[in-house]
Design a protein that fits this description.
The complex is a heterodimer of chains A (503) and B (465). Chain A contains 14 helices and 28 strands. With 503 residues, chain A is α+β, with helices and mostly antiparallel strands. In chain A, the strands form five sheets. In chain A, strands 22, 23, 24, 25, 26, 27 and 28 form a seven-stranded antiparallel sheet that branches. A six-stranded antiparallel β-barrel of chain A has the order 1-2-3-6-5-4. In chain A, strands 8-9-10-13-12-11 form a six-stranded antiparallel beta barrel. In chain B, strands 21, 22, 23, 24, 25, 26 and 27 form a seven-stranded antiparallel sheet that branches. With 465 residues, chain B is of the alpha+beta class. Chain B starts with a helix and ends with a strand. Chain B has ten helices and 27 strands. The chains are: A alpha+beta (503), B alpha+beta (465). Chains A and B meet through strand 16 and strand 28 of A and helix 5 and strand 27 of B.
């Protein structure tokens, strides 16, 4: 048995030691550039046609395959840049700010100790510990996050790194636009909190949408919108819980995606690194010592639907335009007169053709990438006539507003954003909404419930979280009791009498 | 009013207890279970009909009680749910069980959702023995009997159960809880020890209103009998004013959703110890709006009398609504409300009007090939979706599982505003538009524009190939 295994390993090594087996082998010589190399080592049967089209400037094999040696080389190359993240994430439930412990993966992306990971791993983090390849533990700090793309950036505490003289490596980022289906990839991470783990697979699809009918897939934690501006790389390498945030790499050891969703049945999804690169840039640009970095996006308030099967109905040329499925209340598009069933033909003079759901993210991203407040020209077809509409973008908002806990009253509240007001069909797009109440605490005893939109605290009307918190702080300072909360539940008013026994 | 009646009866009972023989003429002698069983069995019938509509076709049978000598039968509305429009039910039968079973053709007279009762009568007149329901008080611990019919697997044989009153509850619908022996099947009458009919067994969780259900047989009933009944006072009004054949029920409404007010909040408005109901919203052009009621008003009195309190704060508004719904359309009432805590109470005279049409009363039409049905837009649709009161269109009432409309993700509740780019006005126009379209283009997809929760959607429905 042992003997057989050794032979296997040996023969594999022998194979791998051929002239163009691994990136390292290929990279250093000109003797194996071009198609022959590719044919010999990587894709004997199907790849030649593809390979022939590609430039191999740096003499690399275009799609190095996962030979046993290559796998080991990639592991050796990337493992030192992969970290385990122990995160205490902030969430509000039962009226309290809670820290829930989670474990995820991340990848160090530069020599300044920045780590790329998922929003669902490190977003909203209050406390992060980074465990490096060499088992050193370093505190980390969330410097920015973006739930729309499910990405977050964590900064290792470099003072600690220097003081302890800790060595680390960072991974090199590749290009996800160069990926082709069938290409070998590996997913690396620290699933279940184990040391580095690697799984092997191929790119199943380079541009996969999880959306149905134009609605993006499930929200993160059931509330954070995600996936509207990007598609995913579908791979069949397993992504297990805890593997999230780790890198998906090609066989050259370049990061081409961030492991994000494991779907079972060999359906796993990674955020393309090209998307991540933009998010990283935006976050680093906006991050301040006292504030998290973010991605600013433009919004017009339009929900699109692919025109597939509708061409005959709207008497359109095949693959021309996109259907306007919904126009949000109070949005720039609504104010400019855009209507459901309009066909959007062009945006700022460029065609907007969407026949398949996969194409929606790119169109939404085109709008999102415009500077906030910029003027947009839409060419719209309605009743056989083409008309021009002009509008200005506004800043994209999440339905999830800023949240706070009211310890003594036993409830948590959140700022009402325009997006939330739209989602909850509120008549006003300002104020605060109760997100949870703590059983047995004053808010619960007062029968206040999650979803109640607060209008008044005592006799003071409150327009936003700032005003509300100011009123709360003042009442607590005055040790006021009872306090009447006037709120709206559905269409009607509700009153809650908060009785507190102050310490 | 109900309360005063209740108190009077209590007083009578007290007199009976104290007076002994003197009250004997008022209180009949106790009756044995065997006697009661013999006496009641002829009044128990099976009510049966055929449902044929969007859900398919099926026969339903349940227990009924004869309440008049001419054969008027009442049964639980659970057997005739409001989701079934009248037009989907036919072949009504009243079956007198027994070895020489008699099957009579019958007519559905109507449904009174206030009492949760459906009324049927035989087509051909025929003498019946009726059960006469009376409003009589019960006290905790006293014995009650109920006589009912066993499910079909026992040939609808009649049976009797004895149990004790465990508690009387004030819910939105008053209920009496009995001991573990329970009561007879849903729809059975309940009697006191003197054999007087004092209530009916309503539908309740874990029970079935069907006597011909596959999953609810004699065994299940014996293992887990119903344990709640509704006292007669809750439905006597419905028995004395049953629905009129062929006419929709005339149920009055106020036009303002009401909510409860907790004790602490009531105290804050200096309404300590009073049952209070908060006006949530006042719908324009309703009796409430015409009377000048305002959202946020606190109702403290009905016709000068304090409100009846429920066991929980949220039951108080339910009880008030139920009281109002049992009144006549056109009834004049006075609501006493507090608007501002530091100002005097306001008396508002209100004239109750008939409530707007309910979804089940709306006309509907089944686009069978695509597997969905639509109905007229009613008040409940425009109110809940915050649409204009005169919203044009039709509402999707039903989407058949696995049908074309379901594949295209049409949803029940969607308001259809356009069919193939033509504005939909109402049901008749939608129906003719659709039929015309099908005639002209039998294989084309229908494109609907619908208003959903927060969005407008364009939906393309391919006909089955």
């Amino acid at each position: 048995m042992l003997r057989g295994m050794m032979i296997l390993v040996l023969s594999a090594t022998a194979l791998a030691q051929g002239p163009c087996s691994a990136p390292s082998g290929c990279g250093n010589g000109t003797d194996c550039g071009g198609n022959d190399c590719c044919m010999a080592a990587s894709r004997p049967a199907s790849a030649p046609a593809k390979c022939a089209q590609r430039r191999v400037e740096d003499s690399d094999v275009p799609f190095p395959s996962a030979t046993p040696q290559a796998r080991i080389d990639v592991c050796n190359e990337v493992f030192p840049a992969v970290v385990r993240l122990d995160v205490k994430q902030e969430s509000y439930s039962e009226g309290k700010r809670r820290l829930s412990q989670g474990i995820g993966s991340g990848v160090i992306i530069d020599d300044q100790g920045r780590i790329l990971t998922n929003f669902h791993v490190a977003g909203r983090a209050a406390e992060i510990h980074v465990t490096l390849f060499n088992k050193e533990r370093v505190p980390g700090k969330l410097i920015g996050d973006d739930h729309w793309t499910d990405l977050a950036i964590v900064q290792m505490d470099m003072d600690v790194v220097r003081k302890k003289n800790i060595a680390f490596k960072h991974a090199k980022l590749g290009n996800s636009s160069d990926l082709v289906p069938g290409q070998d990839v590996m997913a690396i991470g620290t699933p279940f909190g184990l040391a580095r783990t690697v799984t092997l697979g191929i790119v199943s699809n380079t541009d996969r949408t999880l959306a149905q009918d134009g609605n993006a897939g499930a929200k993160i934690d059931g509330q954070y919108e995600t996936g509207e501006f990007n598609n995913w790389i579908q791979i069949d390498a397993a992504i297990n819980p805890g593997n999230s945030g780790g890198p998906t790499v090609d066989m050259r050891g370049r990061v081409i995606g961030i492991n994000t969703r494991g779907g079972g049945q060999n359906l796993n999804f990674a955020i393309p690194i090209d998307i991540a690169r933009e998010v990283i840039a935006a976050i680093l640009k906006t991050a301040r010592p006292d504030g998290k970095g973010y991605v600013e996006r433009s919004d017009l308030g339009i929900d699109f639907k692919p025109l597939q099967n509708f061409e005959d109905y709207y008497r359109l040329d095949i693959n021309r335009g996109v259907l306007i499925n919904n126009v949000e209340r109070f949005s720039p598009a609504q104010k400019a007169g855009l209507a459901t069933q309009d066909i959007l033909l062009e945006l700022n003079g460029q065609p907007t053709n969407v026949r398949f759901p996969e194409e929606l993210a790119a169109l939404r991203k085109r709008i999102a990438d415009l500077p906030v407040g910029s003027e947009v020209r839409l060419s719209v077809r309605r009743d056989g006539q083409t008309r021009q509409l002009t509008m200005k973008t506004v800043r994209l908002q999440s339905a999830v507003g800023e949240e706070r806990e009211l310890k003594l009253w036993g409830m948590s509240v959140r700022n009402i954003t325009r997006a939330y007001a739209n989602e909850a069909r509120l008549d006003e797009d300002h104020g605060v909404v109760i997100t949870s109440v703590n059983p047995g605490y004053p808010a619960d005893k007062a029968d206040l419930k999650a979803g109640d939109a607060i209008l008044k605290v005592g006799k003071t009307p409150v327009a936003d979280l700032g005003e509300f918190m100011a009123a709360y702080d003042r009442l607590v300072k005055e040790k006021a009791t009872p306090v009447v909360i006037e709120a709206r539940r559905g269409r009607g008013p509700v009153f809650g009498v908060i009785k507190v026994s102050y310490p | 009013m109900m309360l005063t009646k209740y108190v009077r009866n209590l007083a009578l009972a007290a007199v009976a207890l104290l007076g002994g023989c003197a009250a004997g003429s008022k209180t009949p002698a106790a009756i044995s279970a065997a006697q009661l069983y013999e006496k009641v069995t002829p009044s128990l019938v099976v009510v049966q009909y055929t449902y044929e509509g969007e859900f398919g076709r099926r026969d339903f049978a349940g227990a009924g009680v004869v309440v008049s000598e001419s054969g008027m039968v009442v049964t639980s509305m659970r057997l005739f749910p409001l989701e079934f429009p009248d037009s989907h039910m036919r072949d009504f039968r009243i079956i007198i069980p027994g070895d020489d079973e008699v099957e009579l053709e019958a007519v559905l007279v109507g449904r009174d959702e206030r009492a949760d009762l459906a009324f049927l009568r035989p087509k051909q007149a025929r003498p019946f023995t009726a059960v006469r329901f009376e409003d009589l008080p019960v006290s905790v611990g006293q014995s009650v009997y109920s006589v009912g019919l066993l499910p079909k697997d026992s040939a609808y044989k009649s049976y009797i159960v004895e149990s004790q009153v465990a508690a009387t509850l004030r819910g939105p619908m008053p209920q009496v809880m009995v001991s573990a022996d329970g009561l007879a099947t849903v729809g059975s009458p309940v009697f006191n020890a003197q054999g007087q009919a004092i209530g009916l067994v309503p539908y309740q969780p874990d029970q079935s209103a069907l006597l011909n259900a596959d999953k609810y047989r004699t065994h299940d009933l014996a293992k887990n009998p119903p344990r709640f009944y509704v006292p007669s006072r809750d439905f006597l009004g419905s028995l004395s004013h049953p629905p009129t054949e062929g006419k929709p029920m005339q149920i009055p409404w106020l036009g303002a959703p009401l909510t409860g007010l907790k004790k602490e909040v009531a105290e804050l408005f200096n309404l300590k110890g009073q049952a209070v109901v908060l006006v949530g919203d006042v719908i324009p052009d309703t009796p409430a709006a015409k009377a000048g009621l305002k959202a946020g008003d606190k109702i403290v009195k009905l016709n000068g009398q304090p409100l009846q309190r429920g066991d929980e704060p949220e039951e108080t508004p339910q009880i008030l609504m139920r009281t109002l719904r049992k009144m006549d359309v056109g009834a004049r009432i006075t609501l006493t409300v507090m608007r501002d805590a530091d100002k005097p109470l306001i008396e508002l005279p209100v004239t109750l009007e008939v409530q707007p049409r309910q979804p089940h009363q709306a006309k509907r039409w089944f686009a069978e090939d695509l597997g969905f049905s639509v109905r007229e837009v009613v008040f409940a649709d425009t109110y809940s979706k915050k649409l204009p009161a005169n919203q044009a269109g039709v509402v999707v009432a039903f989407v058949r599982q696995g049908g074309s409309a379901a594949s295209a993700r049409l949803g029940a509740g969607d308001v259809v505003t356009k069919l193939n780019n033509t504005q939909v006005k109402d049901l008749e126009q939608f129906k003719s538009l659709y039929q015309q379209f099908r005639k002209n283009s039998p294989r084309d997809a229908a494109v609907l524009e619908v208003i959903r929760e927060r969005s407008t959607e364009v939906i393309r429905i391919e006909p089955p190939q």
